[in-house]
Design brief:
This protein is α/β, with parallel strands linked by helices. The protein is 42% helix and 20% strand. Helix 6 packs parallel to helix 7, helix 7 crosses helix 9 and helix 8 runs antiparallel to helix 9. The C terminus is likely disordered.
Length: 306
């Protein structure tokens, strides 16, 4: 069954400043062991980039977002053009392993699986900082310690490496515009909100995380700094508050409660070893920054409104 699935790939982009990374992402799609049915680049309100792409990549479909500025609007623009049975999303600064699409497609063998995603491995431009715990790799958009080590259902997939049956969007609609990243603004959680909507409409539906479906995500030097870590954690809290308003706090925070109870205490305990106190302190601070963002988002106007 999965052999007959046609997979469209959507890459979203918003600036010419990441041209070399975008070109590498498209090259990794071209090099797949299982060819994509089509490759679509959705451009988020940057006409010069759209023109440059159309001139440089004749085999790629370029579509310009006419929706609200931001990643969610660009993803919806790509969805609107996609014709495959499955739509896979790859970030413009990520490179897919050669068997990426092959492994994603294989996950759809079971009919209840409506989405498949995989591991997002950090490619640190300047090396991983010694204080940066792997439990917080979600801060840089990557897979983190605590995710399954074998194919298992999860609540939501990671935006840099995810795919869905196209029919799901006909049922629940697209990504909620107003959530998610806007340019370099470090917000997120639009994938979480979409995944929860899917499960609320189709409780039997499953999203499968397969760590063998790998992409490598570029982490620039500035995202390896304490200032970015702090702002991204706070923004995650704001984003989770926005999702809670849309789908309810119970569903919005179910995975986070398990992460806080099960994963972070082990990280702190490991960080208490000699020479590792910085990582323990980072875990505690990261949790505090995220919680403060969530509380701020719950008591005042936040993302997702308007």
């Amino acid at each position: 069954m999965s052999d007959r699935i046609r997979v469209s790939v959507v890459v979203c982009a918003y600036t010419e400043d990441r041209w070399d990374r975008l070109a590498a992402a498209l090259a990794s799609v071209r090099g797949q062991s299982r060819p994509a049915a089509e490759t679509i680049v959705a451009v988020d309100h940057c006409p010069p980039l759209a023109r440059r792409l159309a001139a440089a990549f004749g085999e790629v479909t370029v579509v310009e977002s006419a929706g609200r500025p931001g990643l969610s609007g660009a993803r919806n623009a790509g969805l609107g053009r996609a014709s495959g049975d499955v739509v896979a999303f790859l970030d413009d600064d990520a490179r897919a392993a050669p068997d990426w699409l092959e492994r994603l497609a294989a996950g759809y063998a079971a009919p209840e699986v409506v989405g498949v995603g995989g591991a997002v491995l950090p490619a640190w431009e300047a090396g991983r900082p010694g204080w940066f715990p792997s439990e917080f790799d979600w801060v840089v958009g990557c897979s983190y310690t605590g995710l399954p080590r074998r194919p298992e259902p999860v609540r939501n997939l990671i935006g840099a490496n995810m795919s869905f049956r196209r029919e799901v969007f006909e049922l629940v609609g697209g990504f909620t515009e107003g959530l998610g990243r806007l340019g370099a603004r470090p917000l997120g959680c639009e994938e979480t909100e979409l995944a929860i909507r899917i499960r609320q409409r189709r409780p039997e539906a499953r999203l499968l995380y397969d760590p063998a479906a790998v992409v490598h995500h570029h982490v620039p030097r500035q995202r390896a700094r304490w200032r970015y870590f702090r702002s991204r954690c706070y923004a995650e809290g704001l984003s989770k508050a926005a999702v809670s308003r849309l789908v309810g706090a119970g569903d919005a925070l179910a995975a986070e409660r398990s992460y806080v109870r099960r994963v972070l205490p082990r990280a702190v305990a490991r960080g208490l070893a000699p020479g590792e106190l910085r990582t323990a302190a980072t875990v505690v601070c990261g949790l505090a920054f995220t919680a403060s963002g969530y509380l701020r988002g719950r008591v005042g106007p936040g993302v997702g409104r308007g």
